[in-house]
Each structure stands twice: as C-alpha cells, then as structure tokens.
Amino acid sequence: MDLTGLLAAAGVLIAASAFGLWRRRTDGTVRATAAAATPDRLAAADLGIDLDARATLVQFSSKVCRYCAPTRRLLTEIADRHAVSYLDIDAEERLDLTRRLTVLRTPTVLVLDPDGHVTHRVSGPPRRAELTAAVGRLVGADN
C-alpha cells in the first residue's frame, strides 16, 4: 500500500472514530425543541388517540429495533408515574408521520404538550433521568 492509500485509510478510521464518539455522546439525549423546529402540531387525528391534557409521550418503533422494547417499558413507567398518555407508533406503518417529523431512526421519542406541539425529542434509547425530568417539568410535578 502506498502513502496515499495509508493516508486515506487513516482518514476513514479517524472519521469513523469521531462519528462513534459523537454518537455515543448524543445518543438518548433529551433535547428541548424550538417551536420553529416543528412548525406544525400533532392532533388527535394524526395519532388516533386524544391528546392528554398534560402531556403525551410518542415513541416511533420498528420491528428490528433492538432498543424499542426497553424504551417502551421506560415510557410506560414514566407515563404511569406522571399520569400522562403514551403511544407507540410503528414507523414503517406510519410513513406519513415518520417523514413529516423527520424520524431517522428508532426509537425516536417525542414529548407533546397538551396542544400537540413537540416540546422534547430523543433519538435513540432515552436517558431515564433526563426524560423523567422533562416530563415532570411539563406537567408541573416534582421528580
């Protein structure tokens, strides 16, 4: 292998390592969303359930998702703790919502306010403490 090949291989390894570190650091982070990031809101007609008067947790899942089942258990627990609604959506069956909300991977979790605006978003398996705190703040509960 010549010098050019070695440099190209080193560049690929460095880029892949940087991506892996970035992904590890940001995976599951609960991010507050600006109103401009999701200009439209989700209505009961979009979801097939009534929006909760305090908050609604929405999970986008897929059949091959390794982290969807643990995320489902976590969201069920948080929804029960804060007495809010929870909905699991199969991303493949609801491509309209998947595309509209730019869901690029599963699980993706959205926290909706009573009006259906996305207040928080998580890509990947959510961090329990961060998500519990975000939902608690939204519903006005002490965590």
TrEMBL record:
It comes from the Bacteria. Residues 53-135 form the Thioredoxin domain. InterPro entries: Thioredoxin-like_sf, Thioredoxin_domain. Pfam families: Thioredoxin. This is Thioredoxin domain-containing protein. It comes from Catenulispora subtropica. The lineage of its organism: Bacteria, Bacillati, Actinomycetota, Actinomycetes, Catenulisporales.
